[in-house]
Amino acid sequence: MAKTYLCKNPACSLGTVGSPGRFTGGITADQLHVLTGKPAEKLKSGEDYGAGFCPNCGQKGAEE
Amino acid sequence: MAQMCPDEGLDLWLGQFPLNTVKYTSPLNLCLFTSQTASTVITHAQTLSAITETTYTSYARQSLAAATWGALAERPTNLGRQTTYPQVTFPTVGASGATINGFHVTNNGNTVLFPGQANFDDVTAVPLLTNDVIKVTPTIALLH
After folding, report:
1. Who among B57, B65, B92 is closest to A56 (CB)?
2. Which of A33, A45, B95, B119 could crosslink A40 through cysteines, CB 3.0-4.6 Å?
3. Mind listing the pLDDT tens digit of every residue in chain A (64 residues)?
């Protein structure tokens, strides 16, 4: 299985709210745009989105 | 809805009680599968290897921690006892989706199907597309 990350944002719905959920890959620029309203063209890979950024809340996750 | 605690899962149950030769280790793993069908699961003699876990983009199996299971309660009506886990949310689907036929739970090391595999209550497959989110609320019951 691909590298997994933990989302430690307590408000994130991933997994069970309040406990870290797991994900692989990461949120895309388009998904982050939908989630936050930030213009997709101004988002930077590795800083705002990409591998390790939670696909459910957009926050940076921790490597497991 | 079909469900199955296969031979290897029952052996693990009985290994804890009454044999006391196996130690349950938390957390278990909650997984989604694409094999079998929306209304069928593996047969009793099959094992975890007969199940295909989904690989949709961003998917990862989720932990079921012992301390998070709900209080033991009656399985209505007077059928047995049960515990329910809070709703578990899986990662939002990225580029590639999948069709999910149900969920299964594996032991801590993800080596044994324990306690088992089940379809969804409505016996309907869930086609996941980009940006979809699937949530599962697992319940385990032991019947009288």
Report:
1. B92
2. A33
3. 689 999 999 999 999 998 899 999 999 999 999 999 999 999 999 999 999 999 999 999 999 9
